[in-house]
Specification:
Layout: H1 10-19, H2 32-45, H3 49-63
Helix pairs in contact: 2-3
């Protein structure tokens, strides 16, 4: 799936997950500070690994 920066919509990402019959993702077990720290690392430093780790943890946690 390819997005152009001006055409990106977070809902498109959720629809893609649902369409592929995957569990929708929620970050309910993550503190606001942890989420903010990971997002800042992603957007300001282009570091993907903290976001990937958070995404994987939240996905497994949400599916349980």
């Amino acid at each position: 799936m390819t997005f152009v920066a001006n055409e990106y919509d977070p809902l498109q990402e959720l629809f893609y997950v649902i369409k592929k019959n995957l569990c929708p993702l929620g970050f309910t077990g993550v503190t606001h500070d942890e989420y903010t720290e990971v997002m800042l690392a992603f957007y300001e430093k282009n570091e993907v690994s903290p976001l990937l780790g958070l995404f994987c943890w939240a996905y497994v946690h949400y599916c349980e």
